[in-house]
Hints:
The protein is an alpha+beta fold. It has helices at residues 14-22, 105-114, 118-142, 145-159, 173-180, 184-196, 212-219, and strands spanning 25-29, 34-36, 44-50, 52-58, 64-71, 75-76, 91-94, 98-104, 167-169, 200-203, 206-209. Strand 10 and strand 11 (206-209) form a beta hairpin. It is globular. The mean pLDDT is 90.
Amino acid sequence: MPRIEFPALRELDDVDRERLLAAGEPRRFRRREVVFHEGDPGDCLHLILSGRVAVRVTTPLGDTATLSLLAAGDVFGELALLDPDARRTATVVAIEPTRTLALRRPVLFAMRERHPEIERFLSTTLAGYVRRLSAMVLEALYLPVEQRVIHRLADLAGLYADQAGGAEIHLTQDDIASLAGTTRATANRVLRTLEQRGVLVLARGRIIVRDRRRLETAAR
């Protein structure tokens, strides 16, 4: 297993960290394969070893909205820890070949009884979920829509970063609009402005960020 840094595991010492990872069930998902559907039983959480996934929900109008993208080192499916009858609140789809470790609720709870230190992992994971949710609500309420688009784009550039200081984001403008909670027309206007400034280039099915530093500056 490649050495991946999981922020949710930082509170554990090396022995407990390896014990927890060893309890995980390796899973592989093809590009566009669904990890789980909204409404499925919440029986486990996933640690991402490689690849990227999209977290999506169905709106009251029946449309699909992308809430976030997650990459190696991230955790998803945390709500499975709260309630044995929990249902998935979103659909998670692999947007490229992805590997995860699935930690099932009975395994985690049994480990917690034998090794109380695991409680720190559970607490850290759920706290991280609450922080992300709170940040999304604050942005939606108080940040101008144009700035939300740039924020989401800067986040994505970090996920797709290359060593040359740029990034090639394999998402459509519809995806960007969904992540920012706006329309495609608004997202396109913001992206075109950034393209005119030389920050990025729009291509079919992807966005090529030439200068991540300038993009991050614009996102502040």
